[in-house]
Amino acid sequence: MILERRGAGALLTFTVLFTLSACGLLAFSGGAFDIGVAAYGLGAALLLILTYGIFSVVFRHIDRLTLVLCFFLVSIGLVLLVRLDMEVALKQLIMLAIGIGLMFATIAVIKAVKDFGKLNYVFMIASFGLLAFAYLFGDAVGGARNWVSIGGVSFQPSEISKVLFVVISAYFFAKKRHKFASVMYALYVGACVILLVLSNDLGAVLLYAATFLIVFFAGTGRTGLTLLGVGVAGAGAVASYYIVPHVKTRVMIWRDPWIYYHNQGYQIVQGLMAIAAGGAFGAGLGLGYPEAIPVNTSDYIYAVICEEFGIIFGIIVILLYLVFIVRGMIIARNATSRFDALLVFGATCMLSLQSFIIIAGVIKLIPLTGITLPFISAGGSSLIACLVLVGIIEGVAVKNGKRDEKDVVDAGGEVI
């Protein structure tokens, strides 16, 4: 426990120094000192320090290493965004503050509840309703109808829906499955996937379907049905290729983006050239040409990471996500109930799959889908949703810690 806290403290110190030094470097990069960039870096660093201190005091048993891993990934995003677009960076910092508040509330709620019972049916209606609203009234961005604007504020309903999806799935797989509940859950999952396909939100389709299959297998252990689900998903993907023009276009571009360089393939090619230009150690912060990469603040921010910080740093980012996954699995394994275990497992799967899908798309391992890189990409909806998922993981970690402390006290030991 002491070593874990020291490790978290060391990583937090590194995160703060990284944020301050990177923003300091950017503040001087224009020739004259930019006090706005320096103040931004200082504000971001103070926010992370303050958050860590408050969370550590209020939630004594929080998994500090997971929290700081999240902070370091967030800090990478903040640094790159202030380098790319100050206006976007300021919005991201505001969304970070809001997301931290919601993460705090999520930890408190998860820590206090056993499960959400019949409220899950309300969650199902809300989750489906959000996706339906986006399909009917949303704006198409990048070919996908997944953005909604209300009162000048734009957000992605699918980001809120995916958090509810994790909670709903954990509940239905944790409980003894009655026929009515199973049918309702199956209809809900199918309806969500169909709506996302109709909206051309391919990244969300892959994310929902893969998370469902993984959590289904973890919750039931039924290999045959899981493989059947994989087969159905594969058949659906093939059918989508022939039925949905947007899917066919994405696959064609993925197979050979150079043929379509001057139109649809431009983004993929520019991203690959940026990664190659960065080499092993990168061009240096502020010395690359990320403006040549379309959508460089969101979908393609991983290409910017590799260009300016290098491929080695890009691999380190992937390793950080892997460590985050391992921490989540440990928390799930130590959970006090089946519901808590599946809740953490689902949240961890959602975050890890989202990371894999977008990174794999950027490096041309799979066809590109328009989703964000968790914690790093610009996008208030995505950042807040990711922080709420971390709040779910940390809420269960707090439960685990309280149980372990009680066991130690009952055994006559001393809590450190």
How is this structure best summarized?
Helices cover 74% and strands 3% of the residues.
| Helix-strand category | mainly alpha
Give the total of domains.
1
Please, what is the average pLDDT? 88
Ends apart, CA distance between termini: 8 Å
What fraction of residues sit in β-strands?
Answer: under 5%
Low-confidence stretches: none
> Counting H and I runs of at least 4 residues, what is the number of helices?
15
Identify the quaternary structure here.
single chain
Give the neighbour order of strands across the main sheet. 1-2-3
- Described by the principal axes of the CA atoms, the overall outline is globular
Radius of gyration: 22 Å
